[in-house]
């Protein structure tokens, strides 16, 4: 509990910075990473009236779910239920909802509507709101899910469907870029880093394009190849194909899910890939202290696996290379690392570890998802308006995240210093 209070104070301290960076943006929503459960959370206020009457809460933004829901300490207006809306329930009661997830968790409750608000600052400061609109959502009366942990009290549903937040907000594009969490030796420095959800005209949908299909609330793309490679960026070994399919009918459907942490693949891909990694790593396997049999961990550090990469190839020719923080993650209970890929025979999933440091754009009108690791400014929120705030300083530090490289594995950042020119000739 002390850790939660400590982080709440730090989030509040960083609110003014986030607000200044985004003051001219509309419908750009900050989100933060919770290290313990590797969750990316949005701060949301529900309710009309002054900010002190709209309680703040943190919710997991989830592209695998079409219904936003939270724990029922909000006064949702139940009058919404009088209208002709419905959500699947066993008894067809329009006011009730009942959801079950693939991991076996479930929740139920009633539907209501109230004003959703996202502030300009991550801690809901007094800088105003950049979104205020009535949204239909679920008030969970009975909840047994992994979505509610410490900070998180529910879900912001970004999946496909009538009840999706995206549909209710009336936008046909959105994007996000989730930064990697801090490394152990830089935890204090990275803790205040903020990422952003962008909706509507502010969404970034350029990059490597992959067509998607709708399956209920889910965004499904087609996986056509998985390739393993070992070696430094300048001296790599020949890639080893793990899974290759040429015909569209043989492609593997995979769910793009911001609500999941890991990549999940079937046994025919996972076990050959795991064997290749185990054979080439000189690290001792250790048990995951969370007792999850599907998690594969090693006694080592991230620098020990910097040469390992896995490339996912998708329909349309786009590829997503996973390495470093997008392939492995640091364990929560000690000095060990874990593979960010696991096995699931029921469905394949592209979770958030693989999506880190990549701008992921959703174009709903054209049914396309884009992956762009070159759009680093959209991961950090740095833009020209931010740089203008430094115009009167003699110098300022600009840090560049090493998203596309593993060269600087000690601190994962490169620092440069920019000095303001003595003349006004360069202002433009």
TrEMBL record:
One Pfam family from the record: TAXi_N
Keyword Iron attached: no
PROSITE patterns: PEPTIDASE_A1
Classification via InterPro entries: Pepsin-like_plant, PEPTIDASE_A1, Peptidase_aspartic_dom_sf, Plant_Aspart_Prot_A1, TAXi_C, TAXi_N
GO-annotated biological processes: proteolysis
GO MF annotation terms: aspartic-type endopeptidase activity
Keyword line: Aspartyl protease, Glycoprotein, Hydrolase, Protease
SUPFAM superfamilies from the UniProt entry: Acid proteases (SSF50630)
Protein name: Aspartic proteinase nepenthesin-2
Organism: Aegilops tauschii
